[in-house]
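Exercise 7. Predict the structure of Copper transport protein from Scophthalmus maximus.
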Amino acid sequence: MMSMTFEVSSSVTLLFDFWNVRGPGGMLLSVLVVFLLTVLYEALKVWRVNLGGQLKPAEPYAAPTFLHSECISTLERSFSESSVTPIASQPSASNTRDSWLLHGLQTVLHMIQVTLGYMLMLCVMSYNVWIFLGVIVGSALGFFISFPLLGQM
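Solution. The predicted structure, encoded as tokens:
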């Protein structure tokens, strides 16, 4: 039966039978791979958020809210409802197609991100301290590198 407590060891089996780590060199390489996968996971999150910003539909017009009744009566006298409401335009066919392509790309990225997230979770569930630290440090570095790029992509 597998131990359910964290252990400091240089031998562990990660995810698949063929990823059987024995020795410090193999552990160092495995921690590096898990570290890089975690940095990639964080970068995918930022990329998906940026793509989501491009998919936002145009927001409908919301009339401003006033606290004083005199402002409301002034507005009612000066504008008719039809002059304040914007005219909705029909999206072009290429715009709709681009929107679907972006949505499809975001869906594929989501699938990769979820798969990678579960794989990293299973790596942590090996209860090896070195693998755990690789995931934590990779997540911190990935966030540190990716987050400033959030508004620039």
